Automatic annotation (TrEMBL):
It comes from Phaeobacter gallaeciensis. ATP binds at residues 15-22. This is Ribose 1,5-bisphosphate phosphokinase PhnN. SUPFAM superfamilies: P-loop containing nucleoside triphosphate hydrolases (SSF52540). PANTHER family: GUANYLATE KINASE-RELATED (PTHR23117), RIBOSE 1,5-BISPHOSPHATE PHOSPHOKINASE PHNN (PTHR23117:SF8). Residues 7-185 form the Guanylate kinase/L-type calcium channel beta subunit domain. GO terms for biological process: 5-phosphoribose 1-diphosphate biosynthetic process; organic phosphonate metabolic process. Its EC number is 2.7.4.23. NCBIfam families: phosphon_PhnN.
Length: 186
């Protein structure tokens, strides 16, 4: 890294299942090539689908965590999630680095990254229900559990949170998010 190279902020993208976090992140990346996406490492089978992630076994994950390979890692929903330390090199020269995080790890992330912000993605309950049903990965009971979790508040003590409504057209949410990110551009 050259002396004085700018590092973009880490932008946590959080929200309930089905809210369109990955779609919003990809839309932002397409709108601004300086925005980078950080792939998570997850103990989820590769054939499970969904987001673009690096699948690993639980044993491999625990080995990586033990070797200090992650800037941040946490368990959720019976899986392990990790953000590789490479996020720091990805930040160099970037407008921002977007990463999908769980609400429960936000305070730890705020401590881990020197420039950290949050996009809290929301959608109306009926929109979430329809999206979850359409993707077909959860049964009706799991859809109801996910909808119940969707209304949980973010932890207290977070410094910079921006809410983005993704109930309608994705391009509107991308435009709103870009306006929020505009002040952080270098």
């Amino acid at each position: 890294m050259s002396m004085g190279a700018q590092k973009g902020p880490v932008i946590a993208v959080v929200g309930p299942s089905g809210v369109g976090k990955d779609s919003l992140m990809e839309g932002l990346r397409q709108a601004d090539p300086g925005i980078k996406l950080m792939r998570r490492v997850i103990t989820r089978a590769p054939e499970a689908g969904g987001e673009d992630y690096t699948p690993v076994t639980e044993a491999a994950f625990l080995d990586l965590a033990g070797k200090g390979a992650f800037a941040l890692h946490w368990p959720a929903h019976g899986l392990h999630y990790g953000i590789p330390k490479e996020i720091e090199s990805l930040r160099v020269g970037a407008t921002a680095v977007l990463v999908n995080l769980s609400r429960g790890v936000l305070l730890e992330a705020q401590d881990a990254f020197d420039d950290f912000r949050i996009l809290s993605v929301t959608a109306r309950p009926e929109v979430l229900a329809a999206r979850l049903a359409a993707r077909g990965r959860e049964d009706a009971a799991e859809v109801q559990r996910r909808l119940a979790r969707a209304v949980k508040p973010l932890p207290a003590g977070l410094a910079e949170v921006h809410e983005i409504d993704n109930s309608g057209d994705l391009s509107a949410a991308v435009t709103t998010a870009l306006r929020v990110l505009q002040p952080v551009r270098v």
